[in-house]
Structure formats: C-alpha cells, structure tokens
Amino acid sequence: MKRFSVLATAVIIAVIFSLNTSAQDVRTATGLPIPIGESVIWGQVELKGLAPDETRPTIYVSLMMGGAQLNRVVANDKGYFVFRERARDGATLLVTVGGQDVGSVVITSAGGDRYDMTIDWNSLRSRRPPGVISVKDAYTGRSAENDKLFTRASEAAKAKKNSEAIKIFEQITKSDSKDFVAWTELGSLHFGNSKYSDAEKAYKKALELKPDFMPALMNLGKLYIADNKFAEAVPVLEKAVETDPASADANHYLGEAYLGSRQGSKAVGVLNEAIKLDPAGKAEVHLRLAALYNAANLKDRAAMEYRSFLEKKPDHPEKSKLEKYIKENLK
Q1: CATH 3.40.50.2300 fits 128-227, yes or no
Q2: Sheet arrangement for strand 5-6
Q3: Rounded Cα distance, 125 and 161, in Å
Q4: 95 by DSSP, 3-state: which?
Q5: How far apart are CA 257 and CA 271, in angstroms?
Q6: Which fold, 5-126?
Q7: 3-state secondary structure of 100
Q8: Non-local CB neighbours of 163 within 8 Å, separated by 6+ positions
Q9: Which region, left, alpha or beta, applies to residue 10 given φ > 0 means left and ψ of -120 to 50 means alpha?
Q10: 81: which of 17, 31, 69, 289 is 20 to 30 A away, CA to CA?
Q11: Backbone angles phi and psi of 10, in degrees to 5
Q12: Across the chain, how many H-helices and E-strands are there?
C-alpha cells in the first residue's frame, strides 16, 4: 500500500492517499457489507486534539463533480465514510465538521480509493461557531440585564458549552424578541449542533427584524448549502451580495449556491468576483472554476484557471499533474 501526505489547509493538516485497499478493509472500518470488487471512495476523518470527554461533532463528507453535489454522507463514530462510487479525476471531497466548512480534497484516479484526513481540532475549535457575531452591540435596544446574559452566553459558547449557551440566548429572546443579534447567535449554535431546522427558524427571525443583517444572511445561506437546499440559498446569498458587494465570502457562497442549483453560467461571474476581492484567500476557487470548465469540455479555460491557481499556490502538491493538464490543453 502506497501512502503520502500533503498539506491541505490550516485545518485539514494532512491527507493520506492509499492504493489497493480491499473490500474487507472497507467492511471492517465502516461495518457496511461491501461486495468484493465494488468500486468505492472511502476514508477516515480524524479530529486531532479532540478530548475523550468532548462530544464528537457531526462530520459530513460531500462528493462533488463539476460543481454539483453527487452525494453526501455522515462519517461514523470513528470518522469513517464511504461512497460506493469509482474515483474520478476532477471530483472533490468537501468536509464539514460541526457546521463549519474545513476544506476540500481533490480526488485523482491515480491516487487510489482511500482518502484519510487529519483535522486540527484545536484550530477549528478556536474559530467561533458559524457566523458568531463580532458586533454584539449592533442591537441598541438590549437591557443591561440582557447585556450581562449575552456576555455569559457568549462565554459559554466559546467554552463549547453549547447547551448552556442556547438556554441563555433563548432566555434573552424570550425577554426581548426584537434582539436580532441574539436570534442570530442562537441560530449559529443550532447550526453548529447540526440542528438545521432550529437554526433556520432563528436566522429567519433575525432577518424579519433586520433584513440586511449580514451574519444572519451569510449563515442562513451556508445552512441551506449544507442541507442541499441550493435553490433556497440563492435568494438569501443574493441579498448578502447586495448588502455587502465587497464580501468575498458572500460572492463565493453565492457561486456555490448557483452551482448546486445548476446555474453554472451565473456562478462563474460571482466566483470570479470572489477571487478578485480576495486573490490569495480565494485561490482554491480557481479549482472550482477549472472543474466546471473541464466538465463542460472547455479544457483551455480550465487550464487557464489551473495556471492562475498555481501562480498563487506554487507549492501545491498536485502541481505536476496540473502543469501536465495545462501543457496538454493550453496552446
């Protein structure tokens, strides 16, 4: 079995590709009755730094191709996931942990069928929950008592005491139903617990009170994407881009929503805008565009995207493969 590691992102700290794994390996790891000879894409997501007494967050792995989601699975309690599909060049695995996007891994037919990923849980945990507010005082009508409760709830959320934080934010919103920031915080906590219905209700309540509140817009859009409700995500994220056209994240996620709802032509414009707004931070978007163009057999355009990506990420582990594609398709 051949293995090698690559640096993926600050959160996905290692990816191991394996060749020639057996059906018995997959059955043992996943507990699924995989027939001998069946094609699979599988692996394990390890959370490095997760304490034994910590609640394990829900891990979703999505299989993407040409901007469309082919399938999504939940990793088991040991982090194993499996897709009963053949590995294809151009496909990607997108990983979401506790409602937070942590990165993507490009699949190659030469890379084998097993993709193990190590997530830096301490780095991910240090991030605030999806869309946690940095504008606590955006709502000016909060009472002194509720302000103290808000601080307590925020501290509980930071300490990963989500149940306690949820109870306090519910207490705040019951006392003052107009506190759109508290509603948004409540939604983010539910989102982090993968309770999408509760999160959606809280975000919608926040947006009823303040329709242009960016944290609620962004996170409701992300929630819909995570829940495969791409059509619902589109108008929410369009509103986010309208509210803050200079947000690279808003343009990026709107592009993902367009791709998921099979509006590729619309996706191209906003994805390019995301790159323009944050060239280094959104370098990976070049790969999304390249996959889209490759699927449409526009290989010269795909090659240009790969070239632009390598200009920003010259040490990428797939550099030689991408350079080969560029040489073959960009005349």
Answers
A1: no
A2: 5-6, 12-18, 114-120, 41-48, 80-83
A3: 12
A4: strand
A5: 11
A6: Immunoglobulin-like (2.60.40)
A7: strand
A8: none
A9: alpha
A10: 289
A11: -70, -20
A12: 13, 9
179 CB-near residues (< 8 Å, 6+ apart): 139, 141, 142, 146, 172, 173
Domain ranges of the chain: 5-126, 128-227
Q: Is the per-residue pLDDT at 133 higher than 50?
A: no
Residues, the chain:
331
Instruction: Mention every residue, 6+ apart, whose C-beta is less than 8 A from residue 79.
Output: 44, 45, 46, 47, 59
pLDDT tens digits, 263-301? 888 999 999 999 998 888 888 899 889 888 888 899 999
CA distances from 3 to 14, 121, 312, 320 (A): 12, 23, 26, 18
Q: How many Cβ atoms are within 10 Å of 319's Cβ, its own excluded?
A: 14
Residue reference for tokens 């070239």: 307
- Return the exposure string of 158-172: e unless at least 16 CB atoms fall within 10 Å of the residue's CB, then b: eebebeebbebbeeb
pTM over 0.90: no
Q: CA 48 to CA 116: how far, in whole Å?
A: 13
Quote the pLDDT of residue 104: 74
Spell out where 130-229 has E strands: none
